[in-house]
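User: Thanks for the earlier help. One more: E3 ubiquitin-protein ligase KCMF1. Can you show the sequence and predicted structure together?

Assistant: Of course, both are below.
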Amino acid sequence: MDVKAITKSVQKLSVSNIHSGIVCGKCATDPIEGFRYACLVCEDYDLCTECYQKKSTSEDHRAFHPMLPILAPDDLAKALKNLTTSQVKIFSCPYCGDGDLAIGKLAAHCLEYHSHKGGKVRCPICVTFSVPDKKRWITEDTLLLHLLVDHQNKDGYVLDLNGNECSVCVEQISTDDSKQLVCGHVFHGNCINLWLRNKSTCPMCRKDVDCNRSRMPDSDSDSDLAEIEF
C-alpha cells in the first residue's frame, strides 16, 4: 500500500483529524487539522494544507524543500493497522524528495545516493510518529547513520515510535512486551495497563484513548490497545 492508497482509505473515516500541538508555520493555524506537511530540511516547520498548496515560504523555508505529508494520529493509526514495516511506504527522502519509501528502502536509497551527504535534516520516521526529542534535526552526521542507530535492531529496520523507551517507567521496551495506543505511542504492556486504570489519556501526547475506562479489563487483552507489529 503506497501513500496515495492510504490517503484514499482514511478520507472515508469520520474520526478526529487534529495534530495536537502542531502549528502552521505560515498562517499560525493551531492546531493543524487533516494533513500536515512537515519540512524535512527546516528544524521545526510544518504547513497546513492550504498554505502548502499555496507553496508558502518563510525566511528560512523554501518552496523546493522536501515536504512530508502526514496524516493525523487517528487516521494514521487506522491506515497503518495490520501493515508490516516493509508495507508502510509513506516516507520521503529529506535530501532529494523521493517519496513513497518504506524505512528499509529509505535506508537503501540513502546508502546509494546520500551516504556522504551531511547537513541538518529531519528524520521522516521520527517526524511522522512524533518521537520525543527527535522531531527536530537529527544529531547524527547523516540520515543513513541515524536510521542504522535509531531505527534498526537485530531483526532489521523497525518503526520505533518511542525511541525504544517506555515513557511510564523510562526503561527499554522489547518487542515481546510492547503495547501501542491508537495515537501511535508504545509502552510496556503492564505499564500502560496500570496507567489507564487511573487516567484516560496517553502519557506522552495526552490524547484521550480510553472512552470507557470502567470497562477496562485487568488482563493484557485491553480492547483499547493493540500489539505493535515489527
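User: Great, one quick takeaway?

Assistant: The longest helix spans residues 103-113.
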